[in-house]
Amino acid sequence: MTECLLNCPLCKSGNILNHLLIKDHAVSNKEFTLFRCGDCELLFTNPRPKEEEIGPYYDFREYYSHGNQVQNFTQWLYKKIRKSSIRRKLELINGLTKSRSLLDYGCGTGEFLQEAKRQRWIVRGIEPSEKARTQAIKKLPSGVVETLSEVPELEAYDVVTLFHVLEHIHRLRDTINKITSHLKSNGYLVIAVPNPESPDAKHYGKDWAGYDVPRHLYHFSRQSISIFQEQFELELVRVEPLVYDSYYVSLLSEGYKNQGSGLISRYFKAFIQGYRSNQKARRLGNYSSNIFIFKKK
């Protein structure tokens, strides 16, 4: 079953238009339509699987964020890059505040929270996926729950993070309003999302792996991020790049675009394109993925 949206899920505008047809290369081989909001520029999957029925679309070996086992070279590389990314993320939030309470929404298998706790953060994670949550609980026995409703209403945090999670949330406005209610005054909301305006997105077009339909429900341009900021009464403090993402997304995109090519060829082309994407992005800041740091007003 699917649900069809008649209004933009971000700004509620009815000015929405059919934009692009994208294939789910990972699981179903079905095609999904991206709509574009004429007011805030948000791209969103429409129609989309219902929240209670989207689970099977996450059930594939290459969905690495929900697993810990290493089964191939690409997954081994992903794990290595994830360790570096975790260090970078901790450096980032360590520089935001001297107070150290952290809520990670969509914490996956818990590696980021585990390292944050080791660095003396008071942590809590939310992870809807049972597979990932089971592994996260092993690392943090009392620190991970399934839903935001399990977090006490008066529990507030200095930092709330959503690293590549915002694009997966069905009830977008309701969820973000609840998340910001758990932010302390002058607390920070840190969000990482893929960038449909990046050089690699433009290079690969409909084969860009960052679209990842139907798992990715939304795609945020700079304009839609600006509207996001207004809608939820946030102040954008700064934007940081995720430079590794261009290589990983380019590798997946090469596989989608050139399905008959060999592994070495895909790696070579992905490295070249990832490097070029980052070089072009240095001028405009339109990296394959960006981290947006907001402060609660």
Overall average pLDDT? 92
Helix/strand order = EEEEEHEHEHEEHEHEHEHHE
- CATH classification, class level: Alpha Beta
Question: How many structurally independent domains?
Answer: 1
The computed structural class is alpha/beta
Low-confidence stretches: none
Percent of residues in helices: 25-40%
Number of helix segments? 8
CATH superfamily (homologous) name: Vaccinia Virus protein VP39
CATH third-level topology: Rossmann fold
Quick one: how many beta strands? 13
**Gross geometry:** globular
Could you explain how this protein is built, in words?
This protein has 8 helices and 13 strands. With 297 residues, the protein is α/β, with parallel strands linked by helices. The chain has one domain: 3-Layer(aba) Sandwich (Rossmann fold). The strands form 3 sheets. A 7-stranded mixed β-sheet has the order 8-7-6-9-10-13-12, with helices on both faces. Strands 2-3-4-11 form a 4-stranded antiparallel β-sheet, with no helix packed on it. Helix 4 links the parallel strand 9 (157-163) and strand 10. The relative contact order is 0.14.
Record the SSE blueprint:
Blueprint (H helix, E strand, L loop, with lengths): L1 E2 L12 E8 L7 E7 L5 E3 L2 E2 L23 H22 L6 E5 L5 H8 L3 E5 L3 H10 L4 E2 L11 E7 L8 H10 L1 E12 L4 H6 L13 E2 L2 H10 L2 E8 L3 H13 L5 H22 L4 E8 L1
Parallel strand pairs: 6-7, 6-9, 7-8, 9-10
Antiparallel strand pairs: 1-5, 2-3, 3-4, 4-11, 10-13, 12-13
Helix pairs in contact: 1-2, 7-8
